[in-house]
Amino acid sequence: MPVKPFKLRCRHCNQPVSWPPQQPRCPRPVCRGPLQPKRNIVFDASLIELSLPGMWRYRHLLPPVHDNPVSLGEGGTPLLRLSHSGKGIVYVKNETLNPTGSFKDRGAAFLINTIQGDDKMVIDDSSGNAGAALAAYAARAGMRVRIFVPAAAPEGKTRQILRFGAELEAVSGGRDAVAEAADAFAQNPDVFYASHVWHPGYSLAMQTIAWEIWEQLGRRAPEWVILPAGNGTLLRGVRWGFRSLQKAKYIQDLPRLVAVQAQACAPLLARSRDAYRPGRFTASPTIADGVAIPNPPHIDAMWAAVRKTKGRVIAIPEAEIVQAQAELARQGFCVEPTAALPYAALAHMEDALAPNDAVALILTGHGFKAERSL
Ligand SMILES: [Zn+2]
């Protein structure tokens, strides 16, 4: 199947970068900005390969990777109607059913398949879902993997990473110190930095969530997509996915994207009110640890994704996160606190929803990952 050339560019300085990138950020030392597609992919439904499982049915629409991709069966998650007494026709996209229990499996699977040179060690800095996902896919590919985590990371979170045979490198200090340690280690030419924060392949893989929703709704876009927003990987990827459908005229309007954060840590809400100062934003602890990101590096792109789709940013108090998690569990959905944010946001959207609006909530991570908070 012929594949059109796919190119990246730096969002800050426009430096062109070929695919797949050898490092996750702009290669110019003075810039090191985020990479993004030079232009959006144009969707073509005739390229969907029905015989391939999960997200790989879209492999000819994604930037090219190996002929026989390493896979654990990621993607292809169900879109299910949810009982809901308020306005809108509400669906959940159940990403908890991915192999390691979170949407990050799509990104980790895709990144593993971009690596050229089997003897490389892959690394990432994450004590959460991204670390577990990369550890699993590196194990599946037979690659060495090292995950950098904060020295104070809870044992429960590191246990899933260790189970897949990953090396753990505990770093003293906050998240920034951990990322710096990973960045320094990645200067070794035998190391591939599969950064879930910086590598554009992560968000590119998240386009498959948009494409699946479109197919599952009978080839149409919902009016709204509501998702948790921490580093913005999912938010940016879902926007790119629906934009690619719009560019090919499969849909007329983009869904309005609603980015949900914890009230204790809501930098994007501050950004939307022009009250965000990079590096100076402080946050309080939250049980929604997947979005406990006070200074997301892609915050401008995240805000653009919300603003350009006429979406919203909603911040949820801790008590409502717990309540939403419990209400989802009473409908049979076991999710971690971060994944309950979109459901909690529904109560804040009654004024915005029309009775027949289709609303897709993305349930990002399984509750088994956070048993103590149930
Ligand atoms: Zn640059």
Proportion of β residues? 15-25%
Termini separation (Å)?
47 Å
Helicity level, as a percent range?
25-40%
Q: Biggest β-sheet: count, sense, barrel?
A: 6 strands, mixed
Widest sheet, order of strands? 4-5-13-10-11-12
Helix/strand order: EEEEEHEHEHEHEHEHEHHEHHE
The overall number of domains is 2
Structural classification: alpha/beta
Which ligands are bound? Answer: zinc ion
> In one word, what is the shape?
globular
CA gyration radius, whole angstroms: 19 Å
How many DSSP-defined strands? 13
Report the uncertain regions: none
Question: Helix segment count?
Answer: 10
CATH fold type of the largest domain: Rossmann fold
CATH C-level category of the largest domain: Alpha Beta
CATH architecture of the largest domain: 3-Layer(aba) Sandwich
Task: Give the averaged pLDDT, no decimals.
Answer: 93
List keywords for this structure.
single chain; 374 residues; alpha/beta; Rossmann fold; 2 domains; 13 strands; 29% helix; binds zinc ion
In short:
The chain is an alpha/beta fold and 374 residues long.
Structure explained in plain terms:
The protein folds into two domains: 79-102 and 200-373, 3-Layer(aba) Sandwich (Rossmann fold), CATH 3.40.50; 116-193, Rossmann fold. The chain is 29% helix and 17% strand. The chain has helices at residues 104-112, 129-141, 155-163, 175-185, 200-216, 233-247, 267-272, 299-308, 318-329, 341-346, and strands at 7-10, 16-18, 35-37, 79-81, 89-94, 121-125, 144-150, 167-171, 191-193, 224-228, 256-262, 312-316, 358-363. A six-stranded mixed beta sheet has the order 4-5-13-10-11-12. Strands 8-7-6-9 form a four-stranded parallel beta sheet, with helices on both faces. α1 packs parallel to α2 and α1 (104-112) packs across α5. The protein is globular. The model has no long low-confidence stretch (mean pLDDT 93). The structure holds zinc ion. The site of zinc ion has 8 residues, from loops.
